[in-house]
Amino acid sequence: MENKIVLITGSSQGIGRAIALKLASEKAKVALNDIRSQEENLRKLKEEVRSLGTEVEYFFADVSNLDEIEKMVEKVKEKFGRLDVLVNNAGIAQDKTLAKMTKNEWQKVIDVNLTGVFNCTKASLPQIIQNQGKIINMSSVVGQKGNFGQTNYAAAKAGIIGFTKSLAKEVGRFGVTVNAIVPGFIETRLTKDLSPEIKLTVKKLTALGRLGQPEEVANLVAFLASEQAKFITGAVINIDGGLSI
Ligand SMILES: NC(=O)c1ccc[n+]([C@@H]2O[C@H](COP(=O)([O-])OP(=O)(O)OC[C@H]3O[C@@H](n4cnc5c(N)ncnc54)[C@H](OP(=O)(O)O)[C@@H]3O)[C@@H](O)[C@H]2O)c1
């Protein structure tokens, strides 16, 4: 990954943070992104990444706002000179049964999780094509199996799978790969408030009997971002400890 420029959305914490540290350890130059309320986390992570001996900068932008994302991608280009790998990682959940879900709760989750992938990809694609780069999208096992109280999140994450396969067909002729990662339950802030009962159920349904770690997802991202994975495109790769079998 030496001298490759990687942009990771929603990377101040959780899986995105682990991806930043993993790719930095492989000497990629890292563009971090999150929303402004995460400044403190981004500042700390920037120092951690820098201490691994690579270049790093953070950029505030809301992935659901195309204007902000276009400006961010321009700034990344100004700072690093190019962009090789985009990791569409930013995501949120606002869980309710459909009967109780408001239009705003539906729209917000679609806007961040799915339209955010469109916005970041749209803004980055010219550079990714120029550099025969790679796009990695974070879906979820919920997008394949559905989940009680997550119609909005499941629809967005299923949408990412269709987006990934379609774009892979469009840009394969330029040598660009587009893949989706499908995590099961991973220990981050997103899952830390699950009740002990739900965590126990998840563990029982997972062949390996535990939740995953952000670093385990980061290892898969590092592989897909590397030259070793250059014949893999349009793939939907589960990393779920066997939850989906
Ligand atoms: N953890 C799991 O079990 C799991 C399983 C399957 C898939 N995933 C997916 O993996 C990705 C990372 O999840 P995670 O568990 O690491 O979650 P996380 O710890 O909550 O990290 C997600 C980051 O994205 C940021 N973000 C939210 N809205 C944003 C926006 N509009 N623009 C830019 N950044 C934004 C969040 O900021 P705020 O905190 O300020 O909102 C947060 O820092 C997500 O796409 C998630 O859906 C996670």
- Overall shape: globular
Round the mean pLDDT to the nearest integer and report it.
98
Please bin the fraction of helical residues: 40-55%
- Output the number of helix runs: 9
Tell me the layout of helices and strands.
Elements: E1 5-8, H1 14-25, E2 29-34, H2 39-50, E3 56-60, H3 66-80, E4 85-88, H4 103-130, E5 134-138, H5 142-145, H6 151-171, E6 177-183, H7 189-192, H8 196-205, H9 214-225, E7 236-239
Parallel strand pairs: 1-2, 1-4, 2-3, 4-5, 5-6, 6-7
Bound molecules: NADP nicotinamide-adenine-dinucleotide phosphate.
Task: Kindly list the characteristics that best describe this protein.
Rossmann fold, 9 helices, 7 strands, globular
Written overview of the protein:
With 245 residues, the protein is of the alpha/beta class. The chain has a single domain, classed as Rossmann fold (3-Layer(aba) Sandwich), CATH 3.40.50. Helices cover 48% and strands 14% of the residues. The chain contains 9 helices and 7 strands, in the order βαβαβαβαβααβαααβ. The chain has helices at residues 14-25, 39-50, 66-80, 103-130, 142-145, 151-171, 189-192, 196-205, 214-225; strands spanning 5-8, 29-34, 56-60, 85-88, 134-138, 177-183, 236-239. The chain has a 7-stranded parallel β-sheet, with helices on both faces. α4 (103-130) links the parallel β4 and β5. The longest helix is centred in the middle third of the chain and has 28 residues, at 103-130. It is globular. The model has no long low-confidence stretch (mean pLDDT 98). Bound molecules: NADP nicotinamide-adenine-dinucleotide phosphate. The site of NADP nicotinamide-adenine-dinucleotide phosphate has 29 residues, from α1, β2 and α7. NADP nicotinamide-adenine-dinucleotide phosphate binds next to α1, β2 and α7.
